[in-house]
Amino acid sequence: MPKGISNKSLLNRARKIRLLILDVDGVMTDGGIILDNDGNEYKAFHVRDGQGIKMLQREGIHVAIITGRNSSVVKRRADELGIKEVYQKCHSKAAAYERLLKKIGVTGEETACIGDDIVDIPLFKRSALPIAVADAAKEAKAEAVMVTENRGGRGAVREVTDFILKAKGLWKRILDDYLEA
Predict the structure, then answer these.
(1) Helix (H), strand (E) at residue 61
(2) Strands 146-147 and 62-66
(3) Domain range 7-180, its CATH number among 1.10.3210.10, 3.40.50.1000, 3.40.50.1100, 3.30.460.10
(4) Given a cut of 70, is residue 181 above it in pLDDT?
(5) How far is residue 40's CA from residue 42's CA, in Å, rounded to a whole number?
(6) What are 7-36's pLDDT values in tens digits?
């Protein structure tokens, strides 16, 4: 759902995206963190979000993670999905963002970012397509140009990946490929 900009403008922004940046807790997960007595950490990821990430990557769109926490679970999930650019324990997400854009060779105009809290606002201000998940903090939603219908960890990432692929005119071919298989 667009906030404050036209659907046409939103689609134009999405067509230019070459990099999708994801937060983890509250975006790729529902924000819950389970710790056991042995110090193990558990997170639940939505399988369709992962499928959406893989579809973007197959179309040459980079996917990266910038998160404030440090977790071996995040590294493992990133490895499973083939996400090579993972920036953890980022107090300043903006600094990681700037390094990432230089490394990949994209501009802010070619970047989408999905977040859920005030720590994501600096990335929102630098990205062409700042997106808040449905259950994001109101301050994050106020800075986003799009708010998902789905909550973090409940298909919000897939909603965005599908939106970008459709805006780029790639969806029908992707769907046809799966229907032929």
Answers:
(1) none
(2) unpaired
(3) 3.40.50.1000
(4) no
(5) 7
(6) 899 999 999 999 999 999 999 999 999 999
* Residues 118-144 pLDDT 10s: 999 999 999 999 999 999 999 999 999
Distance CA(27)–CA(84), nearest Å, equals 18
Q: How many CA atoms lie within 13 A of 77 on its CB side?
A: 26
**Inter-CA distances, 146 with 103, 141, 149, Å:** 26, 8, 10
Domain boundaries, the chain: 7-180
Cα–Cα distance for residue pair 89/123, rounded to 1 Å: 15
Residue that the structure tokens 């979000």 belong to: 49
Q: Residue 148 has which token pair?
A: 């998902």
pLDDT band at 180 (very low <50, low <70, confident <90, very high): confident
Cα(152)–Cα(133) distance, rounded to whole angstroms?
6
Question: Taking Cα atoms as reference points, which of 123, 158, 128, 155 lies closest to residue 5?
Answer: 128
Q: Among candidates 4, 3, 15, which has minimal Cα distance to 109?
A: 15
| Cross-strand bridge partners of residue 113 | 21, 130
56-102 confidence digits (pLDDT tens): 999 999 999 999 999 999 999 999 999 999 999 998 999 999 999 99
